[in-house]
Amino acid sequence: MVGLWDPSSAIPLNWSEDHTWSVDLDACVNLTMRHRFILKRSTREIVWQPGPDRTFKTWC
């Protein structure tokens, strides 16, 4: 749905000065998504977040 584990399809996040990353998405209600954060270095190398997948659940 949002990237399909393909870094070239990743959704960029916005950083704020209070050290919060965010993004506005249109998503279905009561949807559970597995995800990981990635970093794209200046060398274009992709670094995946270590550890298990994270889970995000939508509501409203």
UniProtKB/TrEMBL annotation:
Superkingdom of source: Eukaryota
Classification via PROSITE patterns: CBM20 (PS51166)
InterPro entries per the UniProt record, alphabetical: Carb-bd-like_fold (IPR013784), CBM20 (IPR002044), Ig-like_fold (IPR013783)
GO molecular function: starch binding
CBM20 domain: residues covered: 1-60
Native source species: Populus alba x Populus x berolinensis
GO CC terms of this entry: membrane
Protein name: CBM20 domain-containing protein
Residues spanning the membrane: none
